[in-house]
Amino acid sequence: MIDPGAVRAKIAAFLKVPRERLEDAATLTDLVHESFLLIQLVIELQEEFNARLVQEDLKDVKTVQDLVRQIVTHEIQS
Amino acid sequence: MTEGSRMIDDNELWVLSFYRTSEISGALFFGRLARTMKPGQIQRDMTKHFSDESMHAWYWTACMEKLGAHALKLEESYQDQYLAAAGLPVNIMEVLAITQVFEKRVIGQYSLHSSLPGLNPEIKATLQRIMQDEKWHIEWIRDALEIMEQEYGKDRIETTLKRFTEADLQVYKRTTDEHTERLQELIQRSRRRQ
């Protein structure tokens, strides 16, 4: 089972912000200005936590919390 | 290098600079992704792909230098326009699918450019050198997508390729007007030379 705290920690490390300053309600596009970086973040989370997302899963993802929820609920069984 | 020694006109310089900018964008993108990949064949091939793209940017830089010019600083690459039209790829399969479509477009574009009569031999040699690598890019991605059928499903991969192919057509028709116009100018000039 994927630990939501570990996902938040990974996002914070990727963005190089202290974990405690990464707010769940923060909007991803405010945190990541370059689209290539956003793709990299999403893919890096999937690789790290063995999760798989498809286009529809990200349709309503706006905030850090939304992204964490999607990663946590899309773990693949290996 | 003096202005008087320049062997390409403004249109050619813009087109070659556009190629260079797109190769740099591809290299940066694949370099970042290669860093995130787990050990394995995809990690290996993606690293080689990244290396090729950065070398291509250098080939274009060197080519322009040999023709007496420095590359122009261009803000937007073809890839930026792609993402705007197709939406962000959300997993490795989608990244490879959009790259597959993009690489085919690049080969088509380079092939068209390479066929222009009277093309400067330096530009022609650079185009042909890069096209060799691009063929391998299409092959490794095709193989990787085949392997991914088990995980993502053949139908989903085909649907994704279709979505990105449609976006590619949109981008090519709509947002590369400037590129097309400049290439058309080169084509017309080549015809006048014949």
Structural class of chain B: mainly alpha
Oligomer classification: heterodimer
Shape of chain A: globular
Please give the number of β-strands of chain A.
0
Structural class of chain A: mainly alpha
Q: What does the main sheet of chain A amount to? A: none
Number of strands of chain B: 0
How would you sum up this structure, described in words?
By secondary structure, chain A is an all-alpha fold. Helix content of chain A is 51%, strand content 0%. Chain A has four helices and no strands. In chain A, helix 1 packs across helix 4 (64-72). With 194 residues, chain B is mainly α. Chain B has helices spanning 10-36, 41-66, 78-86, 92-114, 121-152, 154-175, 177-193. Chain B is globular. Chains A and B meet through helix 3 of A and helix 1 and helix 4 of B.
Give me some keywords for this one.
heterodimer; A: 78 residues; mainly alpha; 51% helix; B: 194 residues; 7 helices
List the helices and strands and how they pair.
The complex is a heterodimer of chains A (78) and B (194).
Chain A: H1 4-15, H2 28-31, H3 35-49, H4 64-72
Helix pairs in contact in A: 1-4
Chain B: H1 10-36, H2 41-66, H3 78-86, H4 92-114, H5 121-152, H6 154-175, H7 177-193
Helix pairs in contact in B: 1-2, 1-7, 2-5, 3-6, 4-5, 4-6, 5-6
Short description:
Helices cover 51% and strands 0% of the residues of chain A.
